[in-house]
Amino acid sequence: MWERLAEQGLDSAQYNLGLAYYNGYGVKKNKKKAVELWERSTEQGNADFQNVLGRCYEKGIGVKKDPSKAVELYQKAADQGNARAQKNLGRCYKNGIGVEQNPLKAKIIFESQKRSISPLSRLLWILVYITACIITLNNTEHLIVVTIIAGFIFAASKDKTKPIILSEDTSYL
C-alpha cells in the first residue's frame, strides 16, 4: 500500500515507506533506500521530514556523511518553525558541525526554539502540570484552583521556561 502511494508522490507515504526500509518492517532493511524515499518526501517541503533527513546526512546514515547538507536541511525545517530542527541547527552552530562554530548564533537559535513550541504542546504541558499537581496534592479543592491559575500564568508568559512571576518579561502588565 505505501509503495503505491509513495509512487504517486504522497510525502507521508514516502516517509513511512522509508521508515519501513530503515527498520526492516515488512521489507528487507535498506537504509540507502530509506534515505532515497526521504529525499523525495522532503522535496515537498515537510519540515519534519527535512529534519530527519538532515540527521541522516549529519550521521552518515544511508548516505555519505555531509554535515553541510545536514545544516542546509535543518535550516529549511527551522525556517518553518520546526523545534527539533532548530535544536539540531543550534547544536551544529554551537559545536561547529557543518558550519563555522558560532556560540552566539547557537544561543539565538536555541532561544527561538524555546519560543516556537506549538500552542498545543504548551496546552498539553499545562494539562500534565495541572494533573501532576492535583495528584500530588491529594485533590483538595483550593489547591486545584491554585494549580489551574499557576498553569495559566505559565502559559501567559512569553518566556515559556518559567512562570510570569519569575520571568523578566513585563509585557503582561
Description:
This protein is mostly helical and 173 residues long. It contains nine helices and no strands. The protein has helices spanning 2-7, 11-23, 31-42, 47-59, 67-79, 83-95, 103-115, 119-136, 141-156. Helix 4 runs antiparallel to helix 5 and helix 5 (67-79) crosses helix 6 (83-95). The N and C termini lie far apart (55 Å).
Layout of secondary structure:
Elements: H1 2-7, H2 11-23, H3 31-42, H4 47-59, H5 67-79, H6 83-95, H7 103-115, H8 119-136, H9 141-156
Helix pairs in contact: 2-3, 3-4, 4-5, 5-6, 6-7, 8-9
Task: Describe this structure in a few short sentences.
The protein has helices at residues 2-7, 11-23, 31-42, 47-59, 67-79, 83-95, 103-115, 119-136, 141-156. By secondary structure, it is mostly helical.
Q: What's the SSE pattern?
A: HHHHHHHHH
Instruction: State the end-to-end distance.
Output: 55 Å
Question: Per DSSP, what share of the residues sits in E-state strands of 2 or more residues?
Answer: under 5%
What radius of gyration results from the CA coordinates? 21 Å
Number of helices: 9
**Count of individual beta strands:** 0
Summarize the main sheet: none
Mean pLDDT: 75
Unreliable parts: 135-173
**Which structural category do the helix and sheet elements fall into?**
mainly alpha
